[in-house]
């Protein structure tokens, strides 16, 4: 059961996605540099080949983890578009979108996954995904979906029904923006808090002083507007920030 979002103070697998107009239109031809973030080499290779054949001779780079993707961006600059796997070795759930959205404001990020649960799609879209597509999507539908996203439309699987509407949807998006203000170290600490780790355990795992952990936790609580650890965990769970492994 999904915890209701409070403002801080699945369609059939492989079905062709439904499309809802959103951002101002741009040309898909402007997307020349694409970053694929997926830890499965065959999936990366297949996607890269499909993109090169379907869209022409574009630059397609790959990363096997969220950390590797951030290093790619730091070293080679921002791509024109990102295709991001939902579950990575170092990020599961909406965390990848939240982190990359902070790094790449304005760059269309497509979440790709076999998980077509409504709650997960809603969380990814609220976190800033331009679209969410199934890994089982056929080549033509995949290419069409990416083209539409790169032209500014929000794409979701056919049959998807947003869990939130109106003020609740706005609150979910605002919560994602708050999580996006966390530093990488603070995100790690929040993940460990959600795993039930005590400050001493977090200190040992991250090789930092317990006093430093407490300082980070104070900053986390302030940024996401939570008063207690349990509230922080509930907010992270509501945003589907960290999915179980």
From TrEMBL:
Q: Give this protein's Gene Ontology molecular function annotations.
A: DNA binding
**Chain segments carrying region Disordered:** 1-26
Keywords (alphabetical) are:
DNA-binding, Phosphoprotein
What positions does the domain Response regulatory occupy? 33-150
**GO terms of biological process kind:** phosphorelay signal transduction system; regulation of DNA-templated transcription
Q: Which InterPro entries match?
A: CheY-like_superfamily, EvgA-like, NreC/VraR/RcsB-like_REC, Sig_transdc_resp-reg_C-effctor, Sig_transdc_resp-reg_receiver, Tscrpt_reg_LuxR_C
UniProt entry tagged with the keyword Oxidoreductase: no
Supply the Pfam families for this chain: GerE, Response_reg
Cite the PROSITE patterns for this sequence.
HTH_LUXR_1 (PS00622), HTH_LUXR_2 (PS50043), RESPONSE_REGULATORY (PS50110)
4-aspartylphosphate modifications at: 85
Q: Which residues form the HTH luxR-type domain?
A: 175-240
Q: Where is the composition biased (Low complexity)?
A: 7-24
SMART domains per the record? HTH_LUXR, REC
CDD domains referenced in this protein's UniProt entry, alphabetically: LuxR_C_like, REC_NarL-like
Origin, by domain of life? Bacteria
Q: What is this protein called?
A: Two component transcriptional regulator, LuxR family
